[in-house]
Amino acid sequence: MTVKSCEKLEKSMVALTIEVGAEAFETAVNKAYLKMRNKLNIPGFRPGKAPRKMIESMYGAEVFYEEAVNAILPEVYEEAVKEQNLEVVGYPNVEIESVGKDGVVFKCTVAVYPEVELGQYKGLEAVKAEVKVMAADVNARLKEMAERNSRLVSVERAVKKGDTANIDFEGFDNGVAFDGGKGEAFDLEIGSGTFVPGFEDQLIGMKAGEEKEIDITFPENYTPELAGKPVVFKVKVNEVKVKELPAIDDEFAKDVSEFDTLKDLKADIKKKITEDRKAAAQRAFEDALMTKVAEGIKAEIPDDMVAFQAEKMIDGFKQQLASQGIPFDQYVKMTGMTEEAMKADAMGPALEQLRMDLAVEAIVKAENLEVSDDEVEAEYKNLSEKYGMDIEMVKKYLPAEQIKEQVIREKVIKVVADSAKALAPAKEEEAEGEEKPAKKPAAKKTTKKTEEEK
Fold first, then answer.
1. 229 burial class (0-12, 13-18, 19+ CB within 10 angstroms)?
2. 430 lies in a domain?
3. Number of structural domains in the chain
């Protein structure tokens, strides 16, 4: 095998011209003959017994060339790639320039990993949100906690939106009960959207003990047996219930937390919201910086590489659907999308992801960043504590290479973020032509805590 030329093309493509000499090609042709002779019928010879020269005289000398080329190509291509130190992406497009008793010459055009020129990655600027936690935020969180600790109490009145109606129901298609359309003593929150559109609204106004027939047409994207069909549900309301929230006081604080007073609970909630928002603001700040880094690189990314990344994204989405019990073909049918259209839509995000990955790898090289075994072990321990799992179980589901990649990315982000400048968010400008409101008189100073300090 001889590499006659290795030509660099646009968009990180390379054209490899590879020559296989007469002796090596003759060996491949003879192997092709031994493989194919049983399939060729030659008068006067039993299957597989005809001499090679006899077969070639009848079918032509090139009868075994295609099989010989297919057999020898993978090996010589791989050898040529190694010789030229190429980091190829995807599969090559192969052209046969010449083939005969003197050997064969291939031209393999293939995408290679692009060269990356880093732009600015230190001293960047990005907006970082200011974190404020108001008393209203704390009260909203308290309300959520109260909702989770609410109870349903029976009321003697007609059903209203937001109530929970305990019902018996059965659905009929042309007078015949259908599978999955029956329930007894079922608690249905009116307005939750749990049932078919139109069902819950028709319960409003009914009282306990009342029965009613409800006309419903199933959506077109429902299960095939009922999609688009008009059906009748026979419904009986057994009980009307409303949600009763607990009083938010010291007793409530004792019931839902380790704190003895509502004041202490509020302080803890404010602390946690503040920490969460600071972490979210930092992540958004880092994301904005890394987006700038990715946009700033210079690299000719081959189309094959983008297409391969798009396919990976689609495969990941398929796995996500499968984990939710949704077959991909069913999803495609429901949404009216095709896999080809999804791949086309994924090309843009795939290119963005590749630019980000290339930027990260370039910074790793520029900064000589490494991840030690101790750092990988420390991350395993951190994840084990975070999710309350045995560390060996974490290792079972997350390979060390994946952890290593995660840690190295965090190091790259730290390099970029530590040298960056955080900008305050721009204040909303007044709408053009809008009259400014009159200035309110300055408030007198008081010892009363402001909304933000509560």
1. middle
2. no
3. 3
* 271, 398: one domain: yes
- 321 shares a domain with 232: no
What spatial distance separates the first Cα and last Cα of the chain, rounded to whole Å? 79
Return d(Cα 16, Cα 188) in angstroms, integer: 68
pLDDT tens column, 142-164? 999 999 999 999 999 999 999 99
Q: Does the residue 35 lie in any domain?
A: yes
Residue 107: beta bridge partners? Answer: 17, 95
> Dihedral (C-alpha) 434, 435, 439, 440: value to the nearest 10 degrees?
-80
DSSP string, 147-193: HHT-EEEE-SS---TT-EEEEEEEEEETTEEEEEEEEEEEEEETTS-
pLDDT of residue 329: 84
CA distance linking residue 58 with residue 44, whole number of Å: 13
Same domain for 97 and 158?
no
Identify the DSSP state of 62: G
Q: How many CB atoms lie within 10 A of CB 15?
A: 16
Q: 185 near 238, Cβ under 8 Å?
A: yes
Same domain, 191 and 273: no
User: 418 lies in which domain range?
Assistant: 267-423
- Selection from 379, 425, 386 nearest residue 406 by Cα: 379
Does residue 286 lie within any of the structural domains? yes
Helix-helix angle 262-296:135-148, to 10 degrees: 110
User: Considering only CA atoms, which of 150, 151, 157, 153 is closest in space to residue 241?
Assistant: 153
Do 346 and 389 fall within a single domain? yes
The 10s digit of each residue's pLDDT in 27-57 is: 888 888 888 877 777 777 777 778 888 878 8
| Residue 167 CB partners (closer than 8 Å, separation 6+) | 183, 185, 186, 188, 203, 235, 236, 237, 238
Of 55, 61, 63, 64, give the one whose Cα is nearest residue 30. 64
Residue type, 30: N
Domain match, 190 and 76 both: no
Domain assignment present for residue 312? The answer is yes
Average pLDDT, the chain: 88
Q: How many CB atoms lie within 10 A of CB 433?
A: 5
Burial readout 265-291 (b: 16 or more C-beta within 10 A, e: otherwise)? bbeebbeebeeebeeebbeebbebbbe
- Rounded to whole angstroms, how far apart are CA atoms 391 and 393? 5
Q: Are residues 277 and 416 in the same domain?
A: yes
Query: In angstroms, rounded to a whole number, what is the distance separating the alpha carbons of residues 215 and 233?
Result: 7
Compute, in degrees rounded to 10, the torsion defined by CA atoms 6, 10, 12, 16. Answer: -20
Residues 280 and 227 in one domain: no
